[in-house]
Specification:
The protein is of the alpha+beta class and 156 residues long. It has a single domain, classed as Gcn5-related N-acetyltransferase (GNAT) (Aminopeptidase, 3-Layer(aba) Sandwich). α4 links the parallel β3 and β4. It is globular.
């Protein structure tokens, strides 16, 4: 994770990948510093719910996107997912496939009942990824739209 944060191509070199075009947005930097890295370092937490997962194009041998769950399930069994594709790799279906993989993993976790996501109201690419993976919109605000995918119905 530290090499990812350094953003100096050292991670790509270690993984024998081509240099990537990634940059760390202010939002991702804040998430890494405030949530992801502290949660990964906390032995009492399941790091898999806080790890930043990187998508690698096998054909190009290059990092193309990142995604993560934003912490462990809440009391209702809900987790939040966040994701982003590097600009040069938009429109190739990487994120649709990656989110599907994360959903598959989440379905195998008995404590996870649903997955929540937020998008900007004009981020049609992210909305498309969510729709293709079965998420339904909850509400559309001026700043954010919220989405949900139910994995396990609540039992009474």
């Amino acid at each position: 994770m530290q090499k990812y944060v350094q953003n100096d191509q050292s991670l790509e070199k270690e993984l024998n990948l081509k240099d990537s075009t990634r940059s760390i947005s202010p939002e991702l930097k804040e998430a890494l510093e405030q949530t992801i890295l502290p949660n990964v370092a906390d032995a009492s937490k399941n790091y898999l719910y806080s790890t930043l997962w990187t998508v690698i194009s096998k054909a190009d041998r290059q990092m193309v996107a990142d995604l993560c769950f934003v912490g462990e399930p809440d009391a209702n069994g809900q987790i939040e997912i966040g994701f982003g594709t590097y600009e040069l790799h938009h429109g190739h279906g990487y994120m649709t496939e990656a989110v599907a993989g994360m959903i598959k993993w989440a379905k195998e976790q008995p404590e996870v009942k649903s997955i929540y996501a937020e998008t900007a109201p004009d981020n049609f690419a992210s909305m498309s990824v969510l729709k293709k993976n079965g998420f339904v919109p909850l509400n559309k605000g001026k700043k954010l739209c919220s989405w949900k995918l139910v994995l396990q119905e609540e039992s009474w």
